[in-house]
Amino acid sequence: MNSEEVKKAINETLVSDEGKKMWQEMFKDPKFAEAYAKSMEDSQKDLQKSLMNDSEYKQQMIDLLKDPQMMSQFLTVLKSQEFSSHLEKSIQRTIETPTFQAKIQEILLKAAEEQAKGQGGKNSSEGGGGIQEGGGSNEKKGGGGQGEGNSGGG
Question: H-helix or E-strand containing 88?
């Protein structure tokens, strides 16, 4: 691999007009482009990380983001119908995931427990009676509702 002939052949293949055409054709294939990108992924991450530690690069990024034209472009994209639709679909997919639903259920249960503790601590005698009364009336209403639901479903 270190021989001059191999280096010359590789340079001619990569740099020549025929080589450029070959690469252009190869990158038109999505599978090749994906495989190429994946093979370079780790080195690209390392490059980005090293650039983030470079103060000159940071300043250029800050200047770019402060540019009024860039802000205008960001706002145009964020206000677009296409982005809005994408955001809506993304939120819908998130809401439908089991992990998100489990987290919401956990949050609601904690909130209900905290609310019950708060009511019980303020008026222990009245709060307790209120909870028992509410439970009894809910059972009666819940029982009728379930019966109606079952008869309607049958």
Answer: helix 81-96
